[in-house]
Amino acid sequence: MTASQHIAIVGAGPAGLTAALVAHRLGLEVTLFEQAPNFERIGGGILLHSNGQRVLEALGLLESFRPQMRFSSRLIAEKAGGGALNVIDYAALPIPHACAAIVLRYHLQEHLLQATMAAQIPVHFDHRCTGLTRSDGKVRVQFANGVTEMFDVVIACDGVHSRVRTEAGVPFKKVAIGEGWIRGVADYPIAETAPREMWGADGRRFGIAPLQEGKSYFYARVPLGRWPEILQSGLDDWIESWREYGPQVMQLLRSVDEWGRVNYSELHEIRMPRWYEPPLFFVGDAAHAMTPNLGQGANSSMVDALVLMQLLAQGQQRGTPLAKVGEQYDVIRRPFVTRIQSTARQMGQVAGLSNPVARRVTEGVMGLVAKIGPVQQHTMYL
After folding, report:
1. Which of 60, 23, 109 is nearest to 298 (CA)?
2. Are residues 156 and 232 in the same domain?
3. 54-77 as b/e: b if 16+ CB within 10 A
């Protein structure tokens, strides 16, 4: 790399904003592009684990974000209707920020965006990538609004449906998990501080996490592909189907005012043989989208961004070839992320079992896991 190189970051979610802020601090020239016409307060909650909190701390943004964070030292999994399956005790972990923080995704994004604007980093909304042309070590990026720009490096932070990845023609595999989920926010205060996930005998799950300002984040598994139909003509029956999960779930669902703002998504994994194709690099869901069962998607993407931009800055100073930078990025991040991706998938498969015998085995295994030492149990979060 040379000192004059210009980097494009495509996607202004937590990963892209983190990458831009790290790049600015390290003296790299970056421009950030986002396909949405403007910033909107959409999306559900995010569980910020120790690694995500440490990224904010490295950026000097953790303390100022604390008012938006609802902290918990425990995460609870239980059977629908009551009965603990497992309790994750963060306080027992010998790591910095040994707690989980529940935040609204748009609060995190607003916080990062404000810091980006304060640093005078160029941010362009309404720029949807429609084409990439690589030539002589550079990348020409075309956008739907007619703008075309040339860059020395392009960082794809544009999610599971990455346009950069598709337009570049790099090898990847998109694997459908076969699950549909909704995520939303309700004006429903709950007294307890610990997020809870309830596992039903029918293979469904329902999660509740307390937020600031008397709100709660909730998520639930729904029949694949049927959410629009449920929303249009079967919402009351669908809400009633959760009765065995307890009165709190029923009260929360009945408190939701704007069901049209509840997000529905179908889960996919992204698997790539490598997360770089110089001068292109892939971060977060664009490189390794995973199921949300461990709450590590946003956290892992922010760590990806921090590590990659540090490596690019070092490479620029030392004249390291981009291919070598990519190799270093893969070596540092892939082992951790691959373990998280695999474990999250397996947890979802176990939780989705509805056969009575399989359910009893699952409950026994979860009970055994609860007795394992906390460091062994939570190595995935380190």
Report:
1. 109
2. no
3. bbbebbebbeebeebbbebebbbb
- Per-residue b or e along 310-342, where b marks 16 or more CB atoms closer than 10 Å to that residue's CB: bbbbebbeeebebeebbebbbebbbebbeebbe
pLDDT in tens, 138-196: 999 999 999 999 999 999 999 999 999 999 999 999 999 999 999 999 999 998 889 99
Task: Tell me the one-letter amino acid at 23.
Answer: A
Name the strands in the sheet holding 280-282, side by side, starting at the edge strand that comes first in the sequence: 123-124, 29-33, 6-10, 153-156, 280-282, 276-277
Those residues whose C-beta lies under 8 Å from the C-beta of residue 140, and which sit 6 or more positions away, are 131, 132, 133, 134, 148, 149, 150
Statement to judge: residues 242 and 296 lie in one domain: no
Q: Quick one: 16 and 144 in the same domain? A: yes
Retrieve residue 273's tokens: 């043989």
The answer to the question of residue 85 being in a domain is no
Q: Containing domain of residue 315, as a range?
A: 6-71+101-175+268-379
pTM: 0.92
Do 170 and 52 fall into the same domain? yes
Q: pLDDT by residue (tens digit) across 248-302?
A: 999 999 999 989 889 999 999 999 999 999 999 999 999 999 999 889 999 999 9
- Across the chain, what does the average pLDDT equal? 90
Angle between helical axes of 322-351 and 356-371 (0-180°, round to 10): 120
- Helix axes 105-118 and 14-25, enclosed angle (nearest 10): 30
